[in-house]
Amino acid sequence: MTSFEGKVVGGVLGWAADLGVPHRAVIAGQVTDEARQEASVLGDVWVLALTDRVWQAGEAFARAATLVEEAAVEVGRRALGRG
Questions:
Q1: Roughly how many angstroms between the first and final C-alpha of the chain, as a whole number?
Q2: Residue 1 within any structural domain of the chain
Q3: Which residues lie across from 49 on neighbouring strands?
Q4: Strands 24-28, 45-49: parallel, antiparallel or unpaired by DSSP?
Q5: From CA 21, how far away is CA 64, in angstroms rounded?
């Protein structure tokens, strides 16, 4: 059992795995080391945190929309084998 179970993230990851989706990713504001480890139990799941993209956590909240867009582009490039 992981902390993703019973949550939207866990449900979507499980659903995608059941459908054979080869590339799965989670983009979140903050991610603990424990959550990263738990995601690895679910297979090939890439976990990106907005707070990893800035110097100060407060900046992630102020620039959330842009950071999510950048992370999504990064995920797409990786899925297409371009990054």
A1: 32
A2: no
A3: 28
A4: parallel
A5: 26
- SS3 state of residue 24: strand
pLDDT of 35 reads: 86
Mean pLDDT for the chain?
A: 88
Helices (H), 1-83: 8-18, 33-41, 57-62, 64-79
**Structural domain boundaries, residue 67:** 8-79
Report how far residue 27's alpha carbon sits from residue 49's, in angstroms, rounded to the nearest whole number.
6
Q: How many domains does the chain have?
A: 1
Query: What is the arithmetic mean of pLDDT over 19-41?
Result: 89
- Segment 38-67, tens digit of pLDDT: 888 878 899 999 999 999 989 999 999 999
